[in-house]
Amino acid sequence: MSTKSLVEDLLARENGIFRLEPAWVARDFLPPGRRLGLREDEYDVGERGYICERWLGSITRADNAVGPEDEGLSYLQTGNGVRITLKDAVDAQPALMMGADYASGHANLGRLVKIYDFGARIPYHLHQLEKDAKLVGRNSKDEACYYLDGVDPGPHPETFFGVHPYIAEEKQHEILLPYLEDWDSDLILRHSFAYLNVRGEGFFLPSGIPHAPGTALTLELQEDSDVFAMMQALNAGKIISKKLLYKDVRREDRERLHERVILGQIDWEESGDHYFYENHHLAPRLVAETDQPGGTEYWIYYDSPKFSGKKLVIPPGGSFTSIDRGVYNVFVWKGEGEFDGKSIKAGEFGEDELLVTYRRAIEPVQIRNTGTDELVLFKFFGPGINSGVAPIINQRGR
Predict the structure, then answer these.
(1) Architecture of domain 22-73+109-281
(2) What does the pLDDT look like over 133-143, one tens digit per residue?
(3) Domain 284-381 has what CATH class?
(4) Given strand 229-230, what is the order of strands in its sheet?
């Protein structure tokens, strides 16, 4: 049977809502935070490094030098032993998965969700702007983070964002250059400000802004991309390979400009914004139009047409009727219940992750809390689905 037929049959059998298997991703430049629910002996994966991330509803392959071909890709639970990635399902049946109108203007789901679980701060790095990412055949990587509650925030729960404003205003860009050339320290961080990782809140970060994420367990929603340029040499007690500085830089640009090529990929105006916190901080905002006695939704990812996301909280015994504007995936963070009759449970792999296809998303879906604690889940949407509905930050100083 073809993938197209398999997906069509599975859509009918599962009434448009798929269970997804967890997708684990290793990194070799940082220690793990060990908060993903794996057994202690499962984090160490040899030359690949450590399992430090879980990708949710992913159609993106992790861009690691060493690892399996399907690393980062989510699989559908088929119940019959057949392995189908979510990417293959979307490619085979785009109209059924995403809706015909949406599929006509979008090649795929166009977003990526990750849980970051690092035992040390991620090194100072940037994600290339659209113009630079396209040079190597990639997408840019705007992203937004949300700091999960109920877990240890780790040793460094603060994130460095951007550069000191005078560096941008006075065009003192080359103040960063010696750190890239010498590649022997973490002192580049002294030219940036750090902000506390407040659990239950987050930030929106456009591409082109250097940043060094802290150790709070982070739920990140971003563009469908894995591009970056590492800008910090020393981290977690070891020198990172300088190859990561140039990972997504054309060879001819590197040979012509050397380390300066990275300075040309920084969005200096945005990085040096005096009101960086006010213009990028994401506090939960009530979704007033869906408020009902059985549960409450909040916007937690917004201010971008490229993606959006909600947090849904249902009290014990509560029932919430969900109607949305397009395809989305779900991650269950706390509690247990039923989602359109399917059992869901936080921390239970195979029962904590769903993909809701277009037809079911736009119809009423009943979500019930069957446990004794709050049921908390997150919804993640791709580009354009909530444009004109999700909040926009009122920019200061612009």
Answers:
(1) Sandwich (2.60)
(2) 999 999 999 99
(3) mainly beta
(4) 193-196, 158-161, 211-212, 125-126, 229-230
